[in-house]
TrEMBL record:
The keyword Disulfide bond applies. It comes from Paramormyrops kingsleyae. Keywords: Disulfide bond, Glycoprotein. InterPro entries: Mucin_vWF_Thrombospondin_sf, Ser_inhib-like_sf, TIL_dom, TILa_dom, VWF/SSPO/ZAN-like_Cys-rich_dom, VWF_type-D. One of its GO terms (cellular component) is extracellular space. SUPFAM superfamilies: FnI-like domain (SSF57603), Serine protease inhibitors (SSF57567). PANTHER family: EXTRACELLULAR MATRIX GLYCOPROTEIN RELATED, IGGFC-BINDING PROTEIN. This is VWFD domain-containing protein. Residues 223-410 form the VWFD domain.
């Protein structure tokens, strides 16, 4: 039944258990009945016992045991079930005792706040010091702001760091907005709590609308640059080419934005040899870096669950805020790690093979780098930093190289000096990669939107250069899948138990 309600195929998702789901042994069940796991839901003298007569804990206990068994006793599966039971008890007016501790289901609270078993459901905020009429103020578990701090959005800030009230609406410090339906005025909540307004007109490829509760000029549409494999580039203007240097390069950068309200940014990609000991001039992405708002964020190959922010490793997900307003966030979405900005720039990296850069449409003609100039003209993408057109791809690539002190790299290959695939190997690999072009295959719906021919050629070449590595074949096909899904095309399930099977934890 569950599968019948699936909305779409999502990279990295699983369909549940193949065969019988994992279960606990007799001795494990006995162990998980203690108070370190699910026992509090059966303990007649425990901190939750005052609720047993009001809310039957039986179903919660069974769910807790099931979740703990599936996780083999690891993690905090029991904490979620216990918290759900406590919430239902409090909703029914039952006061339970403290059940969390530092060593058991401890509650992590944001900066300048602390855990409370019985907090108000309607806390004071910068925008509303008293609870709204009809708000449920009943007791509930929550994090409450420390003394001298107050909620601004989902963060606790000092009282003097509250944002601005304007026409009955609350705005964070640093937030911009339009106060009327025509967006002919733009206002900003300044750091000293004042609202400053100036005339505005929406630029080309922008429209006046409300997003996330804030009215403003927002772009519609976008440009997508895809970098995958032994770097194959598909630019914002859909030009396809190969460039195999192993240095650091500007993939996309905001250019010629003087006099606009566009935000400056630079996306840098560092490549490395496919195999460190290989003499072949072929390479793949090693890291992706974004410079924006004075910050540098780096996703590095095989650095699972982490992102480097201004030289410091941080766990995902994470957010960078301007005051209380998030301007950059990073998180995992399926097989991709994602960096997303408040102005619509998105970077996806699978930490192995594939980078996707998406820019909003108001950057039309305002980008430069290896991803092109985004002017909807495919014949002038190879522009140098001075605006002139490069004579060849190698010159174009070298022009966007970033010098990094102490790093030894080479400029890749061009034309006839690039390695070629043996004809015998090529014939065998073409059969395996042909699934990309099969008109009756799982990717047929995408063929009219993204031509699969270049992906087919790249699949054959990359798999050949990796000495027919099956994982490289799968990465090549997955690159086409990701680009199709990125524009909203539904792809049928193409992995099977014997072909490119995906396991949890696979890179």
């Amino acid at each position: 039944m569950g599968q019948s309600w699936r909305v779409a195929e999502t990279p990295g998702c699983v369909q549940g258990c193949n065969g019988p789901c994992p279960s606990c042994s007799f001795f494990q069940k006995i162990w998980y009945k203690n108070d370190r796991y699910c026992g509090l839901l059966k303990d007649d003298h425990g901190p939750l016992s005052s609720c047993f007569s009001k809310v039957d804990p039986t179903e919660f206990y069974q769910s807790c045991m099931n979740d703990v068994c599936l996780n083999k006793g690891e993690g905090r599966a029991q904490c979620s079930v216990l918290a759900a039971y406590v919430a239902l008890c409090q909703k029914n007016g039952v006061q339970v005792s403290e059940w969390r501790s530092r060593s058991f289901c401890d509650k992590q609270c944001p900066a300048n706040s602390q855990y409370s078993l019985c907090a108000s459901g309607c806390p004071a905020t910068c925008g509303n010091l008293s609870p709204p009429v009809g708000c449920d103020t009943s007791c509930q578990e929550s994090c409450v702001c420390d003394k001298g701090f107050i909620l601004s959005g989902n963060k606790c800030v000092p009282f003097n760091k509250c944002g601005c009230m304007f026409n009955g609406m609350y705005y964070y410090l640093g937030q911009t907005f339009s106060p009327n339906a025509t967006c002919d005025v733009e206002c900003k909540c300044t750091d000293d709590g004042r609202v400053l307004c100036s005339k505005l007109s929406c630029a080309a490829h922008e429209k006046c609308e409300i997003r996330n509760g804030v009215r403003g000029c927002y772009p519609f549409g976008n440009g997508i640059c895809s970098i995958y494999g032994d770097p194959h580039y598909n630019t914002f203007d859909n030009t396809t080419y190969d460039f195999q240097g192993t240095c650091t390069y500007v993939a996309a950068k905001a250019c010629h934005i003087e006099g606009t309200h566009l935000t400056p940014f630079t996306v840098v990609v560092e490549n490395e040899r496919w195999y460190p000991q290989s003499s072949q001039n072929v390479s793949v992405a090693k890291l992706v870096a974004l410079e924006v708002y004075g910050n540098t964020l780096i996703l590095r190959r095989n650095q699972i669950g982490l992102i480097m922010v201004n030289g410091i490793l941080a766990n995902l997900p994470m957010k960078l805020n301007n005051g209380s307003f998030p301007v950059v966030e990073a998180y995992q979405d399926g097989i991709f790690y994602v960096i997303k900005t408040d102005f619509g720039l998105t970077i996806k990296y699978d930490l192995v093979y594939h980078v996707i850069i998406t820019v909003p449409s108001n950057y039309e003609g305002k980008t430069c780098g290896l991803c092109g100039n985004f002017n909807y003209k495919a014949n002038d993408d190879f522009q140098l930093p001075d605006g002139k057109t490069a004579k060849d791809l190698l010159t174009f690539g070298l022009a966007w190289k970033v010098s990094v002190s102490g790093v030894v790299c080479d400029d890749g290959c061009s034309g006839d000096i690039c390695p070629n695939c043996d004809e015998d190997k090529k014939g065998q690999l073409q059969e395996q990669c042909e699934t990309l072009r099969n008109p009756n295959g799982p990717f047929a719906k995408c063929h009219n939107l993204i031509n699969p021919n270049s992906y087919f050629r790249d699949c054959v070449y990359d798999t050949c250069m990796s000495d027919r590595d099956h994982k490289m074949l799968c990465h090549s096909i997955a690159a086409y899948v990701a680009d199709c899904q990125n524009i909203g095309t539904e792809i049928k399930n193409w992995r099977t138990p014997t072909f490119c099977r995906k396991y949890l934890g696979d890179s």
